[in-house]
Design brief:
Elements lengths: L15 H6 L5 H8 L1 H9 L10 E6 L4 E6 L2 E2 L1 H14 L3 E6 L5 E5 H17 L7 E6 L3 H13 L2 E6 L4 H11 L3 E5 L1 E4 L2 E4 L1 H8 L7 E5 L13 E3 H4 L12 E2 L3 E6 L9 E5 H15 L7 E4 L6 H13 L3 E5 L10 H9 L3 E4 L1 H11 L14 E4 L6 H11 L6 E3 L34 E4 L11 E6 L9 E2 L3 H8 L9 E9 L5 E6 L4 E3 L2 E3 L1 H9 L4 E11 L3 E10 L7 H11 L8 E4 L13 H9 L14 H17 L1
Helix pairs in contact: 2-3, 4-5, 4-6, 4-11, 5-6, 7-8, 10-11, 13-14
Length: 649
């Protein structure tokens, strides 16, 4: 791959006052590198175990198969709830719930303990036991967290599904997991409308012999279809149960949850995460790179079905005993300042969101946020989902962080369990657009086709060179797919292949360049989609950009840029093409610029660039059931039609 033109020169050292109070200092890297297994054992001891492990970890690279904290036993829900109550912190607020219509609830750790106990008894009464699978098809509600923790408490394996997914997407997960129970709701609030959900759940559940019950949370009060003998109400099965429950401990490698990847090709992969290793990684990473403090009010804005929410909205913050905000609705319901209002209302101190939302704020608000909102409680910002372009990073820091708070840009995946590359805010010098360096205990490298590290400034394949506790153990019911998807390219070295391209600069900072199959090849020149998108988004007339390669008879591939309007209104296509040519080089200049209403994205905020190429070329679309905004496909298709007409005339 060609040498990259990284032009970002801004840097932000850790503020001295922040470094002075940080949870970890620079010595942690030396400690972790000296003995990674001992480092992770120390991290695991932050949790409560009913039985200690006898072996830190085992690893068979040929299978591949990893085990962590072998022989140890613990209960994940106990670590997230009960131990805080037993330590005298039962009156501390665990969850501030904000409903989209404006209803609010504060749930203390003692309240949460009682409700999880009731849900655990409710699950048992429905015949759910250790190892049984439960699919949870709910929006962001207190009940969603309660039932998730209740599954963990009794050893059931949960799989959360975004409440806006289609019946087909839910049905696939029910069939693939062989779930005995589906948990859903009568309806959900979305952009000011109560949307009925139960009918979609019924369609998903139709004629599945392994599915025994559908447990329904009453959220909107709508009349819904009902199947007697199968369907049961939450208030009848859960809220009538006793409020104490004795947790059972489970083996460290006992499955905790199955989370499905999404994309446009092939069926989603059900990644299996286990109890002890995952919770160790999630809890330590949250505590370290978010510098978690007892008085923090943490807000991770992800939907609870996304892996970011599993780790940084359920298991990480709760295992560390924090208070956090959960919000049911969309950022513009009923107004575009809803997030600012929520930050002020609850005194949010740590705000963790996606680059796609930050860029949306930029299009809504322009160079500065609306006045009248107090964001002074924010002490730390975070981003997740895909690489953030430098201008959005700087805008976020300036507007949400008063131009002084650290921005913790995290790189990780559903497969990794928790963050792998992220700065330590009291240690790391930050660079806009870079997730900086691997966390302590994680061995990440950028390598060439032979598996050897590339020189600074050269692009290569991002790999992880040794096992870590939070790693997915397999693909549910398909271990061969796990091997071929993630380990086969460097099987002789035992490297995990993330699927992303990256480069490392002269200071050792890692820059994510996008998915390997998103890299463009124009006349033999390898170009990064992220690099071109960053150049486009730097223009005030562009809100978001999705760049992809499309077939071209002369150059092999041509650059097609799909853009949404920014705060400055639309710019001419020629102006945008000149901007890219100036910032990167003429070879990167888009041949096509297509203005679209919205870019299709996964629930994690990743732009589906392959889907854009398929729409441009008129190819048959792959699986799009996991899109967070399936309506965007029609908008792109119409924009492509108009662009094609213009091209022919």
């Amino acid at each position: 791959m060609d040498e990259l033109r990284l032009s970002e020169t801004r840097s932000f050292p850790a503020p001295p006052e922040f470094a002075a109070q940080a949870n970890v200092d620079a010595s942690i890297y030396e400690t972790a590198n000296a003995d990674p297994a001992a480092f992770w054992e120390a991290a695991a001891r932050r949790l409560d175990w009913t039985e200690p492990w006898h072996t830190a970890h085992t690893w068979d690279a040929t299978t591949p198969a990893a085990e962590w904290f072998v022989g140890g036993r613990l209960n994940v829900a106990y670590n997230c709830v009960d131990r805080h109550v037993e330590a005298g912190r039962g009156d501390k607020v665990a969850l501030y719930f904000e409903g989209e219509p404006g209803d609010r609830e504060a749930v203390t750790y003692a309240d949460l303990q009682r409700r999880v106990a009731q849900a655990a008894h409710g699950l048992t009464s429905l015949g759910i036991g250790p190892g049984d699978r439960v699919v949870i098809y709910l929006p962001v509600l207190v009940e969603t967290i309660v039932i998730t923790l209740a599954c963990a408490r009794i050893g059931a394996v949960h799989s959360l599904v975004f409440g806006g997914f289609s019946a087909d997407a839910v049905r696939f997960r029910l069939e693939d997991t062989g779930a005995k129970l589906l948990v859903t709701t009568d309806g959900q609030n979305r952009r000011g409308t109560a949307i009925e959900v139960k009918s979609a759940a019924d369609e998903a559940a139709r004629d599945l012999p392994e599915l025994e019950h559908v447990l329904v949370v009453k959220r909107t009060g709508q009349d819904v279809p009902w199947t007697e003998g199968r369907d049961v109400w939450w208030q009848d099965v859960v809220e009538t149960q006793q409020t104490t429950h004795e947790p059972e401990s489970f083996d460290s490698e006992h499955p905790l949850f199955i989370i499905y990847t999404s994309g446009t090709t092939g069926k989603p992969k059900g990644l299996v995460h286990t109890s002890g290793g995952y919770l160790t990684h999630a809890s330590w990473a949250h505590w370290a790179h978010f510098d978690a403090k007892p008085d923090d009010v943490h807000w991770c804005t992800a939907d609870l079905a996304w892996v970011t929410a599993h780790t940084y909205e359920i298991y990480g913050p709760l295992s560390n005993g924090l208070t956090q905000v959960i919000y049911e609705g969309t950022p513009d319901a009923p107004h575009q300042t809803r997030h600012l209002e929520i930050i002020e209302r609850y005194g949010v101190t740590v705000y963790y969101t996606a680059p796609t939302l930050i860029r949306t704020f930029m299009t809504w608000f322009g160079s500065s946020l609306p006045t009248g909102f107090d964001l002074s409680t924010i002490r730390l910002l975070g981003t997740v989902g895909e690489a953030i372009n430098p201008e959005a990073w700087v805008w976020f820091r300036r507007n949400f962080g008063r131009d002084e708070t650290p921005v913790v840009d995290t790189w990780w995946q559903s497969e990794t369990g928790a963050a792998m590359i992220a700065p330590l805010p009291g240690v790391t010098t930050l660079k806009p657009g870079s997730a900086t360096v691997a966390l302590p205990g994680i061995d990440v490298a950028v390598v060439d086709e032979a598996g050897d590290p590339v020189a600074p400034g050269r692009a290569g394949t991002l790999v992880v060179r040794r096992p870590w506790p939070g790693m997915a153990r397999t693909v549910w019911r398909d271990p061969e797919r796990y091997r071929t998807s993630y380990w086969a390219p460097y099987a002789d070295r035992g490297y995990y292949v993330a699927g992303d391209g990256a480069t490392i600069d002269a200071d050792g900072c890692i820059w994510i360049l996008g998915r390997l199959d998103d890299v463009l090849n124009v006349s033999g020149h390898r170009l990064s989609t992220i690099e071109i998108e960053s150049a486009l988004v730097a223009h005030d007339a562009v809100g978001e950009a999705g760049v992809t390669g499309v077939a071209d008879p002369i150059t092999g591939q041509a650059v097609a840029a799909f853009v949404t309007n920014g705060s400055a209104g639309p710019a001419s296509y020629d102006a945008l093409r000149r901007l890219v040519a100036h910032d990167i080089g003429p070879i990167a200049k888009p041949k096509y610029v297509i203005r679209v209403p919205e870019l299709p994205k996964t629930r994690s905020g990743k732009i589906l660039r392959r889907l854009l190429a398929q729409l441009w070329q008129g190819d048959t679309l792959g699986d799009i059931t996991s899109l967070q905004n399936p309506w965007a496909v029609d908008g792109v298709r119409e924009a492509v039609r108009l662009a094609r007409e213009k091209e022919t005339t």
